[in-house]
Design goal:
binds adenosine-5'-triphosphate, membrane, ABC transporter transmembrane region fold, Rossmann fold, cell membrane, 20 helices, 6-stranded mixed β-sheet, alpha/beta
Length: 583
């Protein structure tokens, strides 16, 4: 229960509605309990002598109180259920905002499915507590209170007999409710597994088809679907039993009332109208008593869901937002320096990926980073927008330690095209314009021309309005890469980082595109990771990484003269080209 305390700030935000809801719960129950008094009075009047005006008067009063009770119940729902939706809205926003700020290393260890499940199922469990949970708790309390006062006033003895089955009723609902909860949870898990399978299959449909694994995948799906179906069936059976059981138990609780009450009427200690009024109270109590068990399971479920949500909320954004003395007019030119940078991935202290990296890149210069696979090239460029933090050393932008810059300012200066690119299910234009919506169509066209995407898009029937499928599935690999480069160019960065961003285009196009970048972005510092000498040879400087250290650095000509790693790579690619041209 104390886990739910973290919801206090949210509830306090809506304290006015909560107080109003509380007040209306009292009124709805008060009027609900006053009404049956007039049923008793009408029956007693009829029993004595039939006076139509009295009967009609009592019936009208009963109707009036029922109407008042219904009206305030409406107001209760208007306040409490609406608050639960408002808090759900706030929580969802906070959850998504928090996810956006979590460090990249967090996503290395947490699956997307897990985060989606917390943001949907768990959040829904919390909402059920905030709405129906709170509402039925208050309702149960006041309904019990007022009805019991009225029942004791009529007959304390009969009240005792009427309440005899109550603990059994509540406990049974709690037990069956918990069992239903377990089954529902298991259904949710199955549902998650099915969703995951569908999502993975559709994303990887090309691989499935090319390996002709359709039947294999259909079998896997059918197995999961069967499991889901059986679990649903078993829950359905339990539900059927549950409702039949409830109806019988509720009827059972009327037995002692009719028996003991009947005897009281015969003995003359109670009137027939009194018994009738009492029976109405007993039926009024059955739902609140049932709901004690139900509310308990809602609270339990919400408490464990809140723990799961708090686990995520308690993860601090790794990089503190820095609100330093940054001057909004300050101009950055894009000079970059690494000073003795060392880095290891979490949990791999003894295996640094970068060691003693010191490097100066002048503003506007074009620098290539080459090296064998796994030598640390991507890791090095990931440190620039602070996707990871170095263990030792400093990275400076225009002479300023990047840790002293607000993260937003730093990232706004960088156009980053990662190795694994990503496009949204939106138009090509919106994808290129994604971060900088104020760009007009002409700038999108200009960026796509530099990225050599323009001619391809012009051939599509809808041009830049072409809708992309999930992750840009309706584009070729090379088109996707060029669209991502166009997006980075449209961002108008001071520093453009291309991490093997052209691996899917042919050698000639890569070289031409890079030439276009050199020509059209003379003032932008460009950091280019590539395996192709034909592209990197035009850079102002080439850095060769080996086992996380800078092994060589210089121009194409200088490195060829050194006749070491770079020269080896060059000769190897030259040979490959010759073989290709002969064959
Ligand atoms: N998220 C990660 N967690 C742990 N280790 C990682 C992670 N990413 C990369 N590594 C490891 O860090 C080393 C350097 O990887 P990196 O991706 O920087 O190499 P790279 O030079 O860019 O390689 P490639 O040319 O294949 O892209 C590799 O040994 C890799 O296994």
């Amino acid at each position: 229960m104390k886990n739910l305390l973290s919801l206090k700030p949210y509830l306090l935000r809506y304290k006015k509605n909560l107080l109003a809801g509380f007040f209306y719960v009292i009124l709805t129950n008060l009027f609900a309990v006053i009404g049956p008094k007039y049923i008793g009075m009408a029956i007693d009047t009829m029993n004595r002598r039939f006076e139509l005006e009295h009967v009609l008067g009592d019936t009208a009063l009963y109707f009036l109180f029922a109407l008042l009770s219904g009206f305030f119940l409406f107001l209760v729902r208007q306040n409490i259920i609406v608050i639960s939706r408002e808090i759900e809205f706030d929580l969802k926003n906070d959850y998504f905002n928090h996810l956006q700020k979590l460090p990249r290393k967090f996503y290395n260890t947490t699956s997307t499915g897990e985060l989606i499940s917390r943001g949907t199922n768990d959040l829904n469990a919390v909402r059920e507590f905030l709405g129906p949970g709170i509402m039925y708790s208050l309702n149960t309390f006041f309904r019990l209170f007022f009805a019991l006062v009225a029942m004791i006033a009529l007959s304390p003895k009969l009240t005792f007999f009427a309440l005899l089955p109550a603990p059994l009723l509540s406990y049974s609902v709690y037990r069956i409710g918990s069992s239903m909860q377990k089954r529902s949870k298991s259904i949710q898990e199955s549902y998650g597994a099915i969703t995951n399978l569908i999502q993975e299959n559709l994303s990887g449909i090309r691989v499935v088809k090319s390996y002709t694994r359709e039947s294999f995948e259909i079998e896997r799906f059918q197995k999961l679907n069967k499991e889901y179906y059986s679990k649903n069936l078993s829950l359905g059976k339990l539900q059927a039993l549950f409702f039949a059981f409830l109806t019988s138990l509720t009827a059972f609780s009327l037995l002692p009332v009719v028996w003991v009450g009947g005897v009281s009427v015969i003995e003359g200690s109670m009137t027939v109208g009194g018994i009738a009024q009492f029976i109405v109270y007993v039926s009024m109590l059955s739902w609140p008593i049932i709901s004690i068990g139900w509310v308990t399971s809602i609270v339990q479920r919400a408490a464990s869901a809140q723990v799961r949500l708090d686990e995520i909320f308690s993860i601090e954004p790794e990089i503190e937002e820095n609100s330093s003395d940054i001057n909004s007019e300050e101009e950055f030119k894009g000079a970059l320096s690494f000073r003795n940078v060392r880095f290891h991935y979490p949990g791999q202290e003894k295996r640094p990926v970068l060691k003693n990296i010191s490097l100066d890149i002048a503003a506007g210069s074009k620098v290539a980073i080459v090296g064998a696979t796994g030598s640390g090239k991507s890791t090095l460029v990931n440190l620039i927008p602070r996707l990871y933090e170095p263990d030792e050393g400093t990275i400076l932008l225009d002479g300023r330690d990047i840790r002293t810059l607000p993260l937003k300012t730093l990232r706004e200066l960088i156009g980053f095209v990662p190795q694994v690119n990503f496009l949204f299910s939106d138009t090509i234009e919106n994808n290129i314009n994604w971060g900088s919506r104020e760009n007009d169509a002409s700038e999108v066209i200009a960026a796509s021309r530099i990225a050599m995407l323009y001619d391809d898009v012009e051939e599509f029937p809808d041009g830049f309005e072409t809708m992309l499928g999930e992750k840009g599935i309706n584009l070729s690999g090379g088109q996707k890469q060029r669209a991502c480069i166009a997006r980075a160019i449209a961002w108008k960065p001071q520093l453009l980082v291309l991490d093997d961003a052209l691996s899917a285009v042919d050698t000639d196009t890569e070289a031409r595109l890079f030439e276009a970048l050199l020509e059209r972005l003379p003032d932008t510092t460009i950091l280019l990771i590539s395996h192709r000498i034909s592209t990197v040879k035009n850079c102002d400087r080439i850095i060769v990484l080996k086992d996380g250290m800078i092994a060589e650095s210089g121009t194409h000509a200088e490195l060829l003269e050194e006749n070491h790693l770079y020269a080896e790579l060059y000769n190897q690619q030259l040979l490959e080209e010759e073989i290709l041209s002969i064959s």
